[in-house]
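ok so I'm stuck.
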Amino acid sequence: MRRDLLASFVVFLVAIPLSLGIAVASGAPVAAGLIAAVAGGIVAGLIGGSPLQVSGPAAGLTVLVAGLVQTYGWRATCTITMLAGLVQILLGASRVARAALVVSPAVVHGMLAGVGILIVLAQVHVVLGGSPQESAVTNLLEFPGQLARPHTQSALVAGLTVLVVLGWSRLPRIAAFRLVPGPLPAVVLATAVAWALDWRVPRVDLPSSLLDDWSTPVMPQGTLFGITGAVLSVALVAAVESLLCSVAVDRARPAGVPPADLDRDLLGQGAANAVSGVLGGLPVTGVIVRSTANVEAGGRTRLSPVLHGVWVLVLALACGPLIEQVPLAALAALLVVLGVRLADLSRVRDLRHHREAPAYFVTLGGVVLFGLGEGVLLGVGVMAVLALRRLTRLSVRTEQLVPDPADALAPPRWHVVVEGTFTFLGVPRVARALQRIPADGSVDLDLNVDFMDHAAFDAVHRWRLAHERQGGRVDIDEVHEAWYERAVTGDMSQPAKTPLPARWWAPWSNRRRRSETELDAPEMSPADVLLNGVREYHGRTARLVRPIMAELAMEQKPQHLFITCVDSRIVPNIITASGPGDLFINRNVGALVPRHGSRTPDDSVAATVEYAVNVLEIKTITVCGHSNCGAMAALLAGGAEVEHLEGLSRWLKHGNHSLARFLAEKPSGDEQPLTRLCKINVMQQLDNLLTYPWLRERVEAGEIELVGLYLDLGTATVEVFDQAGGGFAPVLDEAPRPGSLT
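replied:
not stuck anymore, here's the structure
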C-alpha cells in the first residue's frame, strides 16, 4: 500500500502537465486531457491486464486527434473516440491482441519520431506566441516569419520551462528531487514567474466544472468510409501503442508482479476510451513515460495507476483556478522537449543492424508529409517488401573441384550449391551461374532449398537436359525436401513437412519449449530428458543422416584423431564443422596424454592412439584444450580440492609436466594464470605424444601431423598453436580455392 501510494503520486505529477499540453496540441479543450487521464487511470487501471501500466492521453495520438478535430469538430471526435473504444473491446474479446504485435518496431518508432517532429514544428509557434498551422510543411514555411516577430514574454516563459526540465535531471541525487519529475517544477516555476511579473501571455482556459460543457455525443458528418477509417485509425493506433507499452513494462516488472494479459489489457483500454469519449475526453492509450515512472517509483499493483487517476480528478475539481494560471507557452515548451525525445534518432543504429532503417525513415517521412495513417501504411508496406526479400533470399556458390592427378582424362568437375528459397526471383542468378559451366563439365548440384516454385524447377530441369545432351553429367542432391525429384516424377502432393533439427547444437534446456498445458506438469527427470532427445533425433534427424550412416555402417575411415577434455561445453563436431565418420575422438579429464613409460601407468589414451595410427591410418592428431578448464584449475591449486577423489588425483599427476612448464616459463602480457596454463597444457600434450618412439618416427617422416587447438568458451572462438611462433593465433578464414567462380 505504501509503495503504490507513493508511486501513484509521482505518476500524478508526471501526468498533469503532459495531459494539459497534449490537449492543447490536439486542438481539444484543456479539460479533455484531464478527463482522459482520469478515465485512463481509473477505468483502464481497474480492468486492464497490465497492472503496472498507466494509461492516459499520449503524444503519439496528438496528430491524429488534431486532424479529426479539424475535420469533424470536437464533439464528433469524442464520438469517434467512444466508437474506437467499442472496437477495442471487440478486439480484446476476440483474443487477437497479440496480432497487433506483428507491426514492426521500426514502423512504430518511425511513427513516434514523425509525431515528435510534427509536435515540435507545431508547438514552436506557440512557444513564440503564435498559433500552429494545419500541416508540417506550412508550419515549416511560416517559421521564419514567426521567428521574426516573436512574443518575447511567451518565449521567455518557454525558455525557462525548457531550462528547468533539462536541468532538473542534473541536480544532486537527493531523494526529494527523485520523487518530483522535472515537468512539474518547470511548469510551476514558469507559472509563478509569469504571475509575479504580470506577463500578458495566453493561459489555460478551464470550464468551471469538467462536465459543464458535456452534451450527448454527436455523430460525425461525413462519408461512411471516412468515419469508419477514423474510428479504426484511433482504435488500432491506440491499441498497438498500448500493447507495445504493455510488453515493454512487462519486461521490467519486479518479482512477484503477475505477467501482462494482453487481451484483457485491450479490453481495459477499450472501456477507458469508451468512457473518455462519452465524458468528452481525449483518446486513451498506455503511456510509456508514466508507466516507467510508476515502475521506478515502486508501484507493485494496479492500485497505483487507479490512485493516480483519482488524484487527477481531485485536482481538476478542486484546483481549477490554479490550473488556469498556467501559461500555454510552458505547456508548449514541455511538448517541444517531448517531441525531440520522440524523434530520437539513436534507435536507427539498432535498426540498421537488422536492415530495417528504411522502414523507419519511410514511416517518419510519411507521417510528416502525408499523415499518421498514411505514414504507417507506407512503413508497413516497406517492411512487407523487406520481409519478402528476406524470404526469397537465395545464395549461389560455384567452384571448380581440384582434379584427381591420377586420372588426367577425367572431365572437369564443378560443385554448385543453391541455398535459400528458390523462386522465380532467383532464377536469373542460378541460370547465370549454371550457364558459365563448360558444356562437357561434370556438375554436382546441391539444392539446399526450403521451397522451389515451378519457374525455378523448369529453369534447372531445362538446363540439366541441355547440359546432358551436350555430353556433360549432372548429379542433383537435395538436402531438404525433394522438390526437384517430386516435380520430375509428377508427385506434387504436399507431404507433412518434417522440420530440420531446431538448433541441434543448443543445450537441451535451450531447446525445450513447454506448451501451456504442460506448465503445471512435473519436471522431467534427467533420464526422461535424455530419452526425449533420442525421440527428437528419431523424429527429425535420423531421416536426414540415414543415407550417410548406411555408407559408414560397415567401415569407418576417419583421417583425424581428436583428443580433448571431457568438459560438457566442448562439442568437437561443432567447432570443426565435422560429421559422422570424420573424427576419431578420445576424451579425458584435462585432455591429457600420459608420457611413454610414465610411473603412473594408464593405457587408455595410448590404446586409442595406437589403434588410430596403426589400424585406421589417421593423418592428423589434434589436442584441443579450452578456457576455464577444471582440471587445470585443480593443478594450479595443488590438487587440494580433489584430493578426496583418489582416481582423479592419480590421473591429474599426468598434468604435472604442464604445471612444471607453466612455473618455469616467464609470463608475457596480462594473460590470466589459468588461461596461460590451459594453453601450455596443449603444447605439453603434443610433446607427450612425441615420447612414443613409433609415433615420433611417423611424425618426423611427415606421415602424421600434430595440431594444437584452444577453444575460448567465452567468445566461442578457436585458436591454433603456431609451432614457429611458439604461441596460439586465431584461425584465419580460408582463402578462395583456385578456379572458384564466386
